[in-house]
Amino acid sequence: SNDVESDLKHVLFSKEQIQQRVNELAAEIDADYQGREILLVGVLKGAVMVMADLARALHSHITMDWMAVSSYGSGTQSSGVVRILKDLETDLMGKHVLIAEDIIDSGLTLSWLKANLLSRGPASVEICTLLRKPDAAKVDIDVKYVGFNIPNEFVVGYGLDFAEKYRNLDFIGTLAPHVYE
Ligand code: PRP
Ligand code: MN
Ligand code: MG
């Protein structure tokens, strides 16, 4: 078959499991912010799905903005220096910023991004990520909301890509070897 589903080896989280966990995170966030307005910052492109679902599950007043960043430097070794491809349009002064991410792998992207956003004078900056790989961490970041901790395996779907594909899957899974061999 030519369907994207036939490229998957194993389903890690079904559509229903993701929706339930996102709803739980939204309830936690609503309780923590107690009616304060939240600026959700989505990190393009992986965070598009979690942003869309989290935003709709929240009852707090929110606004949304987007950033696109790219790891700087060469080869497979990320330097942790990040280049801004698309910046926010919102002035962060006094805002409660909540970064939405699909996954924290080495942590280098978010560690840099959190420091960058903190330098813009917000009232607070917190992070909500659907997935985190504790065994891949190269830096320690304080992440307030984590959907699922996962093993150090390559995963796709629900925003996560392999060579830009598979972002449109409504579940999260691992790729079959024939895809990358
Ligand atoms: C992926 C993922 C996170 C980041 C995590 O984005 O969406 O943003 O890598 O990696 P790290 O913790 O090791 O820094 P990617 O750079 O692939 O861009 P994309 O979101 O457009 O796929
Ligand atoms: Mn990303
Ligand atoms: Mg990617």
From TrEMBL:
Signal peptide: none annotated. It is found in: Cytoplasm. CDD domains: PRTases_typeI (cd06223). Its EC number is 2.4.2.8. The keyword Transferase applies. The keyword Glycosyltransferase applies. Keywords: Cytoplasm, Glycosyltransferase, Magnesium, Metal-binding, Nucleotide-binding, Purine salvage, Transferase. Its cofactor is Mg(2+). It catalyses: IMP + diphosphate = hypoxanthine + 5-phospho-alpha-D-ribose 1-diphosphate; GMP + diphosphate = guanine + 5-phospho-alpha-D-ribose 1-diphosphate. Residues 16-162 form the Phosphoribosyltransferase domain. It is an enzyme of class 2 (transferase). Belongs to the purine/pyrimidine phosphoribosyltransferase family. PANTHER family: HYPOXANTHINE PHOSPHORIBOSYLTRANSFERASE (PTHR43340:SF1), HYPOXANTHINE-GUANINE PHOSPHORIBOSYLTRANSFERASE (PTHR43340). This is Hypoxanthine phosphoribosyltransferase.
